[in-house]
Amino acid sequence: MIILVGGEKGGSGKSCLAQNIAVFLTAECGASIIMVDCDPQRTTSDWIQARNNNPELASINCVQLYGKIRNDLLSLEQHYDFVIVDCGGQDNLALRATMSVASHVLMPLRPKRRDLKTVSHMDDIVATCMMINPKMRASFVITQCPSLPNQANRIFEAKDVCRTYDINVLDAITYSRNIYDDSEESGLSVIEIEPTGKAAAEMRGIACEMLEAQNATEIRNRLATTKINKMRGDYGSGRSQEKLYAV
Ligand SMILES: Nc1ncnc2c1ncn2[C@@H]1O[C@H](COP(=O)(O)OP(=O)(O)OP(=O)(O)O)[C@@H](O)[C@H]1O
Ligand SMILES: [Mg+2]
């Protein structure tokens, strides 16, 4: 399964989300993951390098790919449960190539006017890519929300703006929390720093809602079923009628 975390707005939390979702799927769902960093700033590659220098953390693979990456992604998908692509903050070839094969696209936006102004163009890109990849499920997610109650309206308004387009908007959001910034420095995720914390719950909520699962156990079970079906391959999909009657 190919998951793209992308969008046109710089700093909206794409890399942060991609990294935390990768840890959630690896550590809590037992999935095999590869991250693909398409951003010349190398944010995710640097985070992976810091992470893989720490032997206590579950290591995650990462490759850098640019440009027409459709075929590379399809071949990586054969070897991993999830290919998580961090596309940086522009509309470029890698973003569109990924959208041509991704099953899920997550587009973070802060509840701010400049972020919301990019929604219309993202909607155009998604609509174009869905002509060749109609099964792609694209969602906006509102990030770095203010936690002050008198600013809650900003979050509702941001969701309302997104809902005027034909793209799903996740119920789950992230609030602005220092733990996101603090965790990145040493290649960690918020789930590892504070597993029972609010940020960890936000990341689980976003990943599960995106994958339309109740919790990590459901994702784990789905992966197990997929593996069994893959192993059976061409050898048939179940017991033959004779065997069933014989028992
Ligand atoms: N929910 C949050 N609360 C507080 N800080 C956050 C949150 N999410 C992300 N950040 C911080 O915002 C900064 C930008 O995040 P990130 O690098 O993930 O953005 P990006 O969309 O990948 O940016 P770019 O477009 O440059 O690739 C980072 O310092 C990150 O720690
Ligand atoms: Mg980034």
TrEMBL record:
<protein>
    <submittedName>
        <fullName>Chromosome partitioning protein ParA</fullName>
    </submittedName>
</protein>
<dbReference type="InterPro" id="IPR050678">
    <property type="entry name" value="DNA_Partitioning_ATPase"/>
</dbReference>
<dbReference type="InterPro" id="IPR027417">
    <property type="entry name" value="P-loop_NTPase"/>
</dbReference>
<dbReference type="Pfam" id="PF09140">
    <property type="entry name" value="MipZ"/>
</dbReference>
<dbReference type="InterPro" id="IPR015223">
    <property type="entry name" value="MipZ"/>
</dbReference>
